Predict the structure.
Amino acid sequence: MALLSPFVEEICEELGLGPELLFNLNLVLEEAVTNVVMYAYPEGEVHQIWLSAEEHNGCLVFTLQDEGAEFDPTAVPEADVTLSAEEREIGGLGIFLIRQIMNEVSYRRIDGRNVLTMKKNTVG
């Protein structure tokens, strides 16, 4: 996790993106990576997680991959944020945040890997 923030900062600096977008991207990617660390593998096991970033015509594309348990975050029902914390089920807010901040989120299972693609428009 220690490498995540400098990775995002370097990307934002290279592309000339502002501090608000930097904050939001850090939030989203930390949430996505934390979900993999916490839930994809049995506790105590160490595994690799791959995160790549590409920029195409004003769209920043992050791809997060792991070989953990199959999980499609796009299939999780929307969190009901109108309920109080006591009424709301535990979990799902991270995925809610990712959906709110990113312009597009998609999931595929490819060759035993979870592949989560998150796109954010950086212009307009």
